[in-house]
Amino acid sequence: MIILEKKCLLDGANGSSTTESTELSETWYIKYDEVASDASIAISHSGFFCGLEHPNNVWLSLQSIEADSISGQEWVISLNYTTEQTNINNGGDAEDFKTDVQFGKWTYQRVVTKDKETGDDVVNKAGEPFDSPVVEEISCPVVSVTRRKTAPNMEIIQNIGSINSVAFTLVGIEIPKYCAQLSDYRVDRNQDQDGNAFYTQTFEFKLNFNKSQDTSETIGFKAEVANTGFRVSKGADKYANITYEGQPITSPAFLNDDGTRATSTPNYIQFVINNLFNFKTYNLPTRYPNY
């Protein structure tokens, strides 16, 4: 279904603000190239969806959408934006879905092969690697998001350890593909003062903005290993040892792109070693503070 005409009929003229939130209403006229049989179809093809940030104010997110038919092809779409953080999937009481955000850090170690200032190889004066490699400790952020739900979702546990399959925004942090790992998911049962049960679910993400040694692109949790070996490929599942002065080498050498010869040019291979998942589907807050 294609939009033939789309124009704003009422642009923010109907707005209100309290100490808790700001709301903004807009109305749009949309004409499609074919008949939309009901409001849900008209909305799904409108380009609007719950959680969408307002183009002129990122603090406002789209909370509700309604559609009224003029004809089968022509529809009036009513939008309500708000600064209040709500459950944008299932609706419900906004108070149930306010979130708490906590920040921390995690660390890991890696071998340093290049001087960070000069770019020189980290080797001894003879040009050989040190017996004990030089290691650096990397500190990375941890973001925990806790929100209240009326019922738990235990299927999310299956995604622990996965990394993001697409770029997304979490509490104001722009996270490139492969750079967030769901490191933990916790569900706790609670009870309010009236004896009503509710649940809190906590999403814990490890972030990693590691860059490629080859291209300097951000690769996050992708594994990057040196393209080295003791043999080169001769095709047809045949291999030959790499030699130096007539003798097989005793430490691995870098290989070229197709592995058919040794090279002095360092190069690396990347692998995705974690399961992938689209964390956008969790509908977590995209801004901070989020309410």
Summarize this entry quickly.
This protein has one helix spanning 39-44, and strands at 3-17, 22-32, 53-54, 57-69, 74-82, 99-111, 135-149, 163-164, 168-170, 173-175, 180-191, 197-207, 223-226, 228-229, 231-235, 238-241, 243-244, 247-248, 253-254, 268-271, 276-277. By secondary structure, it is mostly beta strands.
Any overview of this molecule?
With 291 residues, this protein is mainly beta. It folds into 3 domains: 3-84, no CATH class; 96-212 and 275-282, no CATH class; 228-266, no CATH class. Helix content is 2%, strand content 47%. The chain is built from 1 helix and 21 strands. The protein has one helix at residues 39-44; strands spanning 3-17, 22-32, 53-54, 57-69, 74-82, 99-111, 135-149, 163-164, 168-170, 173-175, 180-191, 197-207, 223-226, 228-229, 231-235, 238-241, 243-244, 247-248, 253-254, 268-271, 276-277. The strands form 8 sheets. It has a 5-stranded antiparallel β-sheet with strand order 1-2-5-4-3. The longest helix has 6 residues, at 39-44. It is elongated, with a radius of gyration of 27 Å. It starts with a strand and ends in a 14-residue tail after the last strand. Mean pLDDT is 85; it is low at 15-20 and 86-97.
In which order are the strands of the major sheet placed? 1-2-5-4-3
Mean of residue pLDDT values: 85
- The number of helices is 1
User: What's the N-to-C terminus distance?
Assistant: 36 Å
Shape: elongated
Q: Regions with pLDDT < 50 over 5+ consecutive residues?
A: 15-20, 86-97
Helix content: under 10%
| Structure class | mainly beta
